[in-house]
Amino acid sequence: MTSAAPALSNLSAVTDPKAVQDARAWPFEEARRLIQRLDKLPGGKDKTVLFETGYGPSGLPHIGTFGEVARTTMVRHAFEVLTEGKRKTRLLCFSDDMDGMRKIPDNVPDKAFLEPHLHKPLTVVPNPFGGNYESFGHHNNAMLRRFLDTFGFDYEFASATEYYKAGKFDEVLLRAAERYDEIMGVMLPTLGAERQATYSPFLPISPTSGRVLYVPMKKVDAKAGTITFDDEDGREVTLPVTGGAVKLQWKPDFGMRWAALGVDFEMFGKDHQTNAVIYDKICEILGGVAPQHYVYELFLDEQGQKISKSKGNGLTIDEWLTYASPESLSLYMFQKPRSAKKLHFDVIPRAVDEYLQFLASFPKQDDKQKLDNAVWHIHSGNPPKPELPISFGLLLNLVSVSNAENKDVLWGFVGRYSPGATPAANPILDKLSDYAIRYFNDFVKPTKKYRAPDDVELAALYALDGALAALPADSTPDAIQNAILDVGRGIERYQDHTKTGPHGGPGVKLDWFQAIYEVLLGLERGPRLGTFVALYGIPETRALIEKARTGKLAAA
Q: Of 104, 167, 199, 312, which has the most beta carbons under 10 Å away?
């Protein structure tokens, strides 16, 4: 996506203007609200529209950070399509890297190494990860940019340290000194009595220790543009509010940044929602117009706790991309952004298959349906052609049963199931094969457990083997599925007419498909069996049944 003004046909595979104007997916709804907001502002129709995202580099970027950029990009593209590319846009990814390191993250290599640098700006704290990065903040910023670049986002990166030191905020910081009492009037009612006694929106950087200081102001000289306070050693110090000698507390900093940069749209997590009114008021005090907000729900780890950069809980960006495609992660961000989402490894396979389903349905849809399809938003209006003959879940099951250690084994099965399918012709599937092998080895294989069949199941497996033997080798998945169902129905009818099982034991109601999953695949859940057998092969499945019947699978 670019910030130029291309024709509508270049912005989207959908060219029906009416379908675009009637689109109801949430990025369109937000973009439409933004257009209405801008139309009411003086010069709003002509300005370059600034979308902003924020990042606190107190820890490595996590998926929530990526989600903010991905979702904002979706709104930005919807805005460009609605305005037919006639309004220029920018996306600024802003890092609050001048913030003091208030605590040491749990996921750094050596916590003791960082202890002497507590409360120093993140771009001054030494880098504990090694490499050629100037500081902890520089390293984390680089990790964020690396990932955003991998995804091909069209963005500009901004460092708070650089902006403060380069004077880009000086004009508004001087205004903050002039309107200090108004800012305090907004902030003090939100604080407890003890905090009120020492609070200041200005945080000086100590000239002696280099730490970010939370100290009361002895004097704020608006005319001189300075603040006076007692440094850590007790000496009275006067510093200019300009040039990076001082930064603002995080709540006033939000509003100051919006005012200084002219931000039009910013989304943030639900934990910021109660403070949004404070950000808005301070922005307006400092002469700006508060931007449009979009509040999304938080991301949770497997235990339902909020994911945190400093704790390192939940999934990292690199972890997701080890086991699944970038597009599946984008889909996870697109779906229900105002609902809390758990981010752990179990959600990955479903996200991949849901993405593939949306992609497969896209060419068959009319323009209105396409604009509601997640892949339209994931691919900025131009999704690739679907190419997959099988699902990711089925591929995982194939890896599990075949114990494939490389893609060549998988392609042998796939090529037989879908003649003409090759790594060159199906690059998406080829990548998914790598993901499936990694995911199986790390998450499925350690928990995989076959069990021996009971008497009822053993009889059913005998019957299944016979049913498969009677089928042609090239039977369709539906034909195989029906044969499997017929075996299950036969066992159920037999059990209905006897109080004992087929081998004289107590009659037990057979959960046919669950039995196959647990006995043949070593899994609690599994694929549509007709499709799986067609992919794996009838002879191979019969050999698997023989191993189960003779106890070899359970013994293994």
A: 104
